[in-house]
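Lab notes, practical 5.
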Amino acid sequence: MPGAESYRFERRVVGTSTLVEPVTTRATSWAPQQAIAGGSWEGRVTAIDAAGNTLTPAAWRPFPVSWRYVICRRSRFE
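Output from the prediction step:
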């Protein structure tokens, strides 16, 4: 975005206003430090100018997270 010096990535559970792991970075991409819990999430990015002012934030965009685990049990044969 023209005038952007950094970006704030925000994530929240759909239907809430509490931010989870908000991050500000100079990079144009970012990845979470831990796995995101399963469920319905939404995220957005806000550009920040050199003076620290926020530019127009992007709209919240939903994304689902689904994890499937396979549990293997080891049998003990005697």
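Observations recorded by the TA: Strands lie at 6-13, 20-25, 39-48, 61-65. The mean pLDDT is 85.
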